[in-house]
Amino acid sequence: xxxxxxxxxxxxxxxxxxxxxxxxxxxxxxxxxxxxxxxxxxxxxxxxxxxxxxxxxxxxxxxxxxxxxxxxxxxxxxxxxxxx
Length: 84
Hints:
- The chain is mainly alpha-helical and 84 residues long.
- The chain has four helices and no strands.
- It has one domain.
- Helix 2 packs across helix 3 (38-61) and helix 3 runs antiparallel to helix 4 (68-83).
- The longest helix has 24 residues, at 38-61.
């Protein structure tokens, strides 16, 4: 088990593109728990992060009072990604 964990950590360190940020992992986990496919959830995450930037996305995601604009964007982007 320790060897597998070490390999995973080394792999993530060497190939940062293959390892998602904490915000991305949490978003994907929550999104998938609603029944959406992983590819659609990843699409939504990427589009929202592109629109709001990494910090703007996190600020909107980790607040109890998300802006109406962010919520609308999330719904519209989710519908768009489910169609793709």
